Amino acid sequence: MQPVRLGMENQTSGNANIYVTRLTGKLSLETVHEFLCMLRPEPASYLVLDMSGVSFLDSAGVGGLVSLFISRRNTGKRLALAALAQQGVAALQVSGLTHLLPVYDSVDLAIRQFRM
């Protein structure tokens, strides 16, 4: 059996204050610790997670997204999720978090929201 992986690729947004990271693979119990260790220290004011490459999101992954959202909010920074697959949207809906976490259909829409 292959190990579960979550890839994180930095992308440019054209604005130094906005940091975009594209996630690929599974955001799950096996990968959430590394996810948080990599993204919690991010100093950019605005962080956009491009979730288009996330093939699976479990409750631990959802918890990791909430934890990252709260830690950023507590330090005056913002987080947005973009381009979630249907399974990811369903995981957020089941947990009732669609009203807490800002979710956008695309990375461009999330970036546009931060520029307002």
Describe this structure in words.
The protein is an alpha/beta fold and 116 residues long. It has one domain (6-115): 2-Layer Sandwich (Transcription Regulator spoIIAA), CATH 3.30.750.24. Helix content is 37%, strand content 30%. It is built from four helices and five strands; from the N terminus they run ββαβαβαβα. The protein has helices at residues 32-39, 59-74, 86-95, 107-115; strands spanning 6-11, 18-27, 46-57, 78-82, 103-104. A five-stranded mixed beta sheet has the order 1-2-3-4-5, sandwiched between helices. Strand 3, helix 2 and strand 4 form a beta-alpha-beta unit. It starts with 5 loop residues before the first strand and ends with a helix.
Summarize, please:
The protein is α/β, with parallel strands linked by helices. The chain has helices spanning 32-39, 59-74, 86-95, 107-115, and strands at residues 6-11, 18-27, 46-57, 78-82, 103-104.
Q: For this structure, what is the CATH class?
A: Alpha Beta
Q: Tell me about the biggest sheet?
A: 5 strands, mixed
Q: How many structural units, i.e. domains?
A: 1
Spatial strand order of the main sheet:
1-2-3-4-5
How many beta-strand elements? Answer: 5
Order of helices and strands: EEHEHEHEH
- CATH-wise, what's the superfamily? STAS domain
Cα-atom Rg, whole angstroms?
13 Å
What assembly state would you assign to the polypeptide chains in this entry?
A: single chain
Provide the helix percentage.
Answer: 25-40%
Q: Name the CATH architecture.
A: 2-Layer Sandwich
Outline the low-pLDDT stretches.
none
Number of helices: 4
Approximate strand percentage: 25-35%
Any idea what the shape is?
A: globular
Distance between the amino and carboxyl termini? 46 Å
